[in-house]
Amino acid sequence: MKSFLIDRYEKGGALRLGESALPELRENDVMVEIHAAGVNVLDSKIRDGEFKLILPYRLPLVLGNDVAGIVVRVGAKVRQFKPGDAVYARPAQDRIGTFAEYIAMDEADVAMKPNNLTMEEAASVPLVALTAWQVLIERANVQKGQKVLIHAGSGGVGTIAIQLAKHLGAYVATTTSTANIALVKSLGADVVIDYTKDDFEKVLQGYDVVLNSLGKDTLEKSLSVLKPGGKLISISGPPDPDFARQSGSGWLLQQVMRILSFGIRRKSKRRGIDYSFLFMTANGSQLGRITSLIEAGVIRPVVDRVLPFARTNEALGYVETGRAKGKVVVAVK
């Protein structure tokens, strides 16, 4: 099958269009003919080698972390899906590879595609929606009336997180550039900070939760926005010891993560704030609940552009500029 691969870790390197073997179909797997694949910053970080310590992939590696398509075969023990089903998923982190014509995934990681979305729209959803769900519902347990700050509101995670937080009854602030103010307001943001003109940490205070997807400066400034007992949850690092333990990292790697996160954990503790790092995980059950919200009109995906499969490198390059509104998708079929 045709696929976009990396042969070695290389910062800014191009993906290679080549042939790779059809993935193995295990007894709990569904084989999906890929119609569309979402493109994520995670793809470029994996290519650059940023996660090689915690995600030890075997090279060459087919990249891609979001998929929508049609089930063509099922393993002997599969009960939830059958050939012909339209599905979408974020494959498990050790079985990625959606920049290809086919992928095999455990049925537990897969959900039926929302009826009201195209394949391209559906492919934009899983990774970012699961991230928002796992931050706001699982980790933060956001309640009605709480104040939530979502950084980078016009990005892939931000566009979904704003809508989910509003659905949960939160008062939502977000940061974005001048060009995207109308977009984030249309998604439900109550307060919009234009980072080209204002410093969010001077405007906001008394927040319960901050979802950070940006760098170290933004992470540390976010502490002053939170009230004692608040939660600072970062999806861009630094990883903390809890994550190291949960991911099964060895003692040495646990110590590395302890050192990397020491500064922000110490500053958080002084202010009575809970800092944690979240690396989202595949979850078909949660994705099924997200499907219900999409079909009910509670959440709508924001797709910046759809490019043909042959232009996957161009799609990844555009995502890396940080200028995409919502998601970028490649149409595989």
TrEMBL record:
<dbReference type="Pfam" id="PF13602">
    <property type="entry name" value="ADH_zinc_N_2"/>
</dbReference>
<dbReference type="InterPro" id="IPR050700">
    <property type="entry name" value="YIM1/Zinc_Alcohol_DH_Fams"/>
</dbReference>
<keyword id="KW-0560">Oxidoreductase</keyword>
<feature type="domain" description="Enoyl reductase (ER)">
    <location>
        <begin position="12"/>
        <end position="330"/>
    </location>
</feature>
<dbReference type="InterPro" id="IPR020843">
    <property type="entry name" value="ER"/>
</dbReference>
<dbReference type="InterPro" id="IPR036291">
    <property type="entry name" value="NAD(P)-bd_dom_sf"/>
</dbReference>
<dbReference type="Pfam" id="PF08240">
    <property type="entry name" value="ADH_N"/>
</dbReference>
<dbReference type="InterPro" id="IPR011032">
    <property type="entry name" value="GroES-like_sf"/>
</dbReference>
<dbReference type="InterPro" id="IPR002364">
    <property type="entry name" value="Quin_OxRdtase/zeta-crystal_CS"/>
</dbReference>
<dbReference type="GO" id="GO:0008270">
    <property type="term" value="F:zinc ion binding"/>
</dbReference>
<keyword id="KW-0614">Plasmid</keyword>
<dbReference type="GO" id="GO:0004022">
    <property type="term" value="F:alcohol dehydrogenase (NAD+) activity"/>
</dbReference>
<dbReference type="InterPro" id="IPR013154">
    <property type="entry name" value="ADH-like_N"/>
</dbReference>
<protein>
    <submittedName>
        <fullName>Alcohol dehydrogenase zinc-binding domain protein</fullName>
        <ecNumber>1.1.1.1</ecNumber>
    </submittedName>
</protein>
